[in-house]
Task: inverse folding
C-alpha cells in the first residue's frame, strides 16, 4: 500500500480555475480514469480523471476553491507504489506526485505548493481562437475579483473575465452594470485578430429585457454548464468569422449499399459502421485536395497556418449540450478504425468522460444531424478552424439520367458547408463540396 497525492495536471492555458463539483468522497474506491472533480474557467469546463485506481483517503479541495496545474486534489491509497517518474506522462492526465510515507500506512504531510512539479509535455494548443481580449493585460488577473456570486454567475454566462473589469461599486466591487458596460465596450472595440484586417467594432444594441410573465405563465430553467460555455464560444465565432454556407447534394446510393453489405462483418468486429465514418474519410480526401480548408488564420490576421495533420472533430449531442471530440490522424486510419473511434468517443462524450485533449487540436468539424432529420442548416464554424460540414438526412429523390433520359430513384445526402470567407473564396467552397460529392458517389475512390 502507498499513499499518492493526485494533483491537477497540465490543463493548457487555464489557471486559477474554479472547482465546481466534487465527484468522489473520502472512502470511495475508484478506477483509473474515473472523474475526480470538475473545474470550470470562463472558457471551458473539464473533468479531471484519476490517473490510477485506489481508495480516496483525503480530499484536498472543496467546491469554490481555485486550482491550477500542480494544486493537490486528493490523497489516494493505491495497491502499489508509484514514483513521479512512473506517473502517466500524458499531457492532461493528472500528475501524480508520490511521496514515500515513513510507514506503509502513514499519510505524509502535504508538500508545500512551491514543490517542483514533474515535467510534463507541452499542452496541445486549445482549439479556441486565442482570445484577443484576454491578451490585453489592462487589469491584473492575479488579483481576485471583488464581486458577488450573482455577478460572477452573470459574468460567466456572458464569457466576461472579471479579472479585467474595473468595479465601480464600494471598494472597487464589480457590479452587474460594470460587466454589461465591459461587454459592450469589448464588442465595439476593433480587434486585429478577431475582427480581421477590416477592423471596425460591432455596435450591438442591448437585448430588450421583457417581463414575459405579463403575457402568460412561464417557467424559468437554468442553462446547462456546457450550453453556457459553448454559447459564448458560438456567439464569438458567429460574429467574428464571416460565414458563407455552400449547399450541395451527394448521391450516396452505392455507398449506402456498400455500407449495408459491410454491416455484419463490422458488427462481428464490434463496430457500428455508420455513414459518418465514410464522411470523415471523404472530408480528409477533400482537405488534401484543398489545403486552405485545413488551416487557421494566425492571430495577427495576416498569415494562414496550414496544417499537415488531419484531426477531424465531430459534434455529439449529449444530454448536457454539444461537445466536439476529435479523431486524430484520420488519414492513417481505415473506415472501420474511424467507425470504432466514433462509437467510443461519442459514448464517452455522453457519459461526460472525455478528456480535455480529446477535444483539442481539431482541423475541421463535421456536424451530422442525419440521424434526426432536416434538409439543410447553417453550422457555425468551430474557430479557429475555417470550415465545418453540416450533414442532413439522406432521402430518395428522382435524379435525371441524361443517358437513359429517365428519372432514377437515388439516395441523396444534403451537405451544408460553412466556411470563413476571409480565408476561403466562394469558388473554392463550391469546389470543396463538388469534390466531396465525387468521393461520396464513388465508394472505390473513397476507399483508395
Ligand atoms: N441520413 C439518413 N440516415 C442517417 C444519416 C443520414 N445522413 N446519418 C445517420 N443516419 C441513421 C443511421 O444510419 C442510424 O440508423 P440505424 O439506427 O438504422 O443504423 C441512425 O440514423 C442514427 O445514427 P447515429 O446518429 O446514432 O449515428 P451517426 O454515426 O450518424 O452519428 C453522432 C453519431 C455522434 C454524430 C450523432 O449521434 C449525434 O450526436 N448527432 C448530433 C450532432 C449535433 O447535434 N449537431 C448539431 C451541432 S450544431 O452545428
Result:
Amino acid at each position: 500500500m502507498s499513499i499518492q497525492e493526485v494533483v491537477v495536471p497540465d490543463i493548457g492555458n487555464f489557471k486559477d480555475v474554479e472547482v465546481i463539483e466534487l465527484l468522489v468522497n473520502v472512502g470511495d474506491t475508484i478506477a483509473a480514469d474515473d472523474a475526480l472533480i470538475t473545474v470550470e474557467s470562463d472558457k471551458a469546463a473539464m473533468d479531471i480523471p484519476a490517473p490510477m485506481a485506489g481508495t480516496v483517503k483525503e480530499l484536498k479541495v472543496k467546491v469554490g476553491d481555485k486550482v491550477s496545474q500542480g494544486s493537490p486534489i486528493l490523497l489516494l491509497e493505491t495497491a502499489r507504489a508509484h514514483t513521479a517518474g512512473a506517473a502517466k506522462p500524458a499531457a492532461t492526465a493528472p500528475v501524480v506526485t508520490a511521496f514515500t510515507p515513513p510507514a506503509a500506512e502513514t499519510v505524509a504531510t502535504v508538500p508545500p505548493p512551491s514543490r517542483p512539479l514533474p515535467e510534463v509535455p507541452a499542452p496541445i494548443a486549445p482549439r479556441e481562437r486565442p482570445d484577443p481580449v484576454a491578451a490585453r493585460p489592462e487589469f491584473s488577473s492575479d488579483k481576485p475579483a471583488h464581486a458577488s456570486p450573482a455577478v460572477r454567475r452573470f459574468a460567466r454566462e456572458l464569457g466576461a473575465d472579471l479579472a479585467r473589469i474595473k468595479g465601480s461599486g464600494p471598494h472597487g466591487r464589480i457590479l452587474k452594470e460594470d460587466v454589461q458596460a465591459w461587454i459592450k465596450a469589448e464588442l465595439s472595440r476593433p480587434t486585429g485578430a478577431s475582427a480581421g484586417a477590416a477592423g471596425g467594432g460591432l455596435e450591438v444594441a442591448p437585448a430588450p429585457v421583457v417581463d414575459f410573465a405579463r403575457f402568460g405563465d412561464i417557467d424559468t430553467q437554468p442553462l446547462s454548464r456546457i450550453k453556457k460555455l459553448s454559447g459564448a464560444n458560438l456567439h464569438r465565432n458567429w460574429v467574428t468569422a464571416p460565414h458563407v454556407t455552400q449547399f450541395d447534394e451527394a448521391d450516396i446510393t452505392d455507398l449506402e449499399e456498400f455500407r449495408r453489405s459491410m454491416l455484419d462483418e463490422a458488427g462481428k468486429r464490434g463496430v457500428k459502421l455508420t455513414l459518418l465514418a465514410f464522411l470523415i474519410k471523404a472530408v480528409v480526401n477533400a482537405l488534401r485536395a484543398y489545403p486552405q480548408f485545413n488551416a487557421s488564420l494566425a492571430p495577427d490576421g495576416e498569415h494562414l497556418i496550414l496544417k499537415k495533420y488531419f484531426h477531424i472533430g465531430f459534434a455529439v449531442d449529449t444530454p448536457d449540450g454539444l461537445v466536439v471530440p476529435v479523431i486524430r490522424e484520420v488519414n492513417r486510419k481505415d473506415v472501420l478504425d474511424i467507425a470504432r473511434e466514433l462509437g467510443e468517443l461519442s459514448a464517452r462524450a455522453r457519459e461526460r468522460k472525455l478528456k480535455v485533449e480529446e477535444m483539442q487540436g481539431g482541423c475541421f468539424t463535421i456536424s451530422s444531424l442525419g440521424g434526426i432529420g432536416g434538409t439543410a442548416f447553417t453550422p457555425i464554424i468551430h474557430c479557429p478552424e475555417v470550415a465545418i460540414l453540416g450533414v442532413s438526412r439522406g432521402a430518395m429523390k428522382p435524379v435525371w439520367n441524361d443517358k437513359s433520359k429517365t428519372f432514377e430513384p437515388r439516395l441523396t445526402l444534403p451537405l451544408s458547408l460553412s466556411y470563413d470567407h476571409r480565408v476561403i473564396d466562394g469558388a473554392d467552397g463550391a469546389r470543396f463540396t463538388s469534390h466531396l460529392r465525387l468521393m461520396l458517389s464513388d465508394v472505390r475512390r473513397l476507399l483508395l
User: Anything to note?
Assistant: The chain has two domains: 2-188, 225-447. The longest strand covers residues 406-420.
